[in-house]
Amino acid sequence: MTEEKKPEERKKRRTATEAAASIGPMVKAMITDVQKAREEGKPIAFTFIACAYDEIIRAMDIVPSWVENYAGICGAKRDAQRFLERAESLNFSRSLCTYALCGLGFDSWREELGEMPPDAPWGGQVKPTVMLGSGQILCDPRNKWFQAAQHYMPDVPVYDVSLPYPAYADDYDFHETEGYYVKHIVEQLRGLIDFLEEQTGHKMDWARLEELVDLVDRTYDLIVDTYDLRRAIPTPMGTGDAMNTMVPIQFMMATQQAYDFFTNLNAELKDKIARKEGVIEDEKYRLIWGGGLPSWFALGDFNYFNSKGAVFPVETTYRTLESTRDFDIDLKKIKDPLEHIAWRWVKTWTYWYDKARKRPGSHPDVERLIQYIEDFKIDGIVMHEAFSCRSWHVGLIWQLNHLKKIYRDMPSLILESDIIDISSYNEADTRARIDAFIDTLEAVKDR
Q1: Cα–Cα distances in Å, from 215 out to 68, 221, 252?
Q2: Is pLDDT at 10 greater than 60 in this prediction?
Q3: Residues 6 or more apart in contact with residue 283 via CB below 8 angstroms
Q4: pTM, 2 dp
Q5: What number of other Cβ atoms are within 10 A of residue 212's Cβ?
């Protein structure tokens, strides 16, 4: 493990865009808004990213508190260890998701003290009114985290929204079953609304919900259009910045602020392209971040790649959305806002299924990598295996091996660390592996 530096001693990661540089104050404002809501007695919901209920809670004037976001803040500030250690002292295994461990350690400490833990990053994470799970098929904490949190907040009720999507298989047509999934999700969302109305006293504003559903569709399309601008050579924005600009996607969807943010980013990238201004002056290698959440305490590694002439025009992480214009269903014809949300959810997660079926033996995740490699003129692939996040990281090596059958000479690098547990990270070793990877890229280019 490298010697841990105090926040003021570490260099701030350089951003290539003004938009990415503005994210810090936006995130801090989100945390402050939740704290203010608590003071004013407004209902607060613990929430997860990619939850499909963004529009619902905002239409009901319920304030979201994004627990993964706060754990990421603790990690980025290199102040997660004390909360991880507290969770471990409560007999939670250190092998569990460190987002969840950080949150559980923080909440248990806050409830024991009756106030925020000392020097809590950005004022701390307040006690919620309700906790909303989103039981997808990919992440255990979305079912179990809030159940565990009830040990320390037994008076806070939990509602777990079941959000499945059709599994991928070569031997059946998922189109035959997707309608059943939509029906199930609609029932789940109606149950969520009933729960929230009972627990908070806030009634659903259905007209407002319809407005927000439309806003999210338009924001999705704008984000895809904006990120596709990064195909330009030189690329005007890299993955390091995208790990910042993911904030409006994951934590501010269904807000005008998110739409306005990407309107401004879109204009900024177009201006950079017109001036041929890239992330770096001499773009030598174009890489794809092919999978895995980042180490939030080590985002400076992206700057290190840049210093070697390498840029990341595209990534799969946090790009879990597709343009609604490309769906094989016209969402505008679906008038029930809950059914609209459910179809958008299913079509987003199955977007690559039909494409994969056209290539025998392929898989949707691999097909997406192939498409990005071709569209963004990629020279090499980097993945990150975070030890405590098995749900998003399982299968990365399989994907890479499958990809190698198509791109035999494409260099690859698998980094190993964690999302917020800095004890898993060795900067010198990481930089040495990046150096060796760059050497391989250079040798392949020479050939």
Answers
A1: 24, 10, 12
A2: no
A3: 233, 234, 235, 309, 311
A4: 0.93
A5: 23
Q: Is residue 107 part of a domain?
A: yes
Give the CA distances from residue 253 to residues 58, 137, 239, in Å, rounded to whole numbers and listed in that order. Answer: 10, 22, 20
What is the CB neighbour count within 10 angstroms for residue 349? 23
Our count of domains for the chain comes to 1
Closest CA to 378 of 285, 293, 306: 285
CA–CA dist 283, 262 (Å, integer): 25
HSE-CB of 71 using CA atoms within 13 angstroms? 28
Give bridge partners of residue 132 from the DSSP assignment: 159
Give me the long-range contacts of 178-182 (CB less than 8 A, separation at least 24). 178/346, 178/350, 181/342, 181/346, 182/339, 182/342, 182/343, 182/346
Q: Which amino acid is at 124?
A: G
CB-count exposure of residue 391 (10 Å: 0-12, 13-18, 19+): middle
What pLDDT score was predicted for residue 13? Answer: 63
- Pairwise CA distance, residues 25 & 30, whole Å: 9
Closest by alpha carbon to 388, among 88, 62, 96? 96
**1 inside domain:** no
Token pair 């102040």 is found at 79
For residue 7, is pLDDT > 60?
no
Whether 2 is in a domain gets the answer no
Is residue 244 a part of any domain in this protein? yes
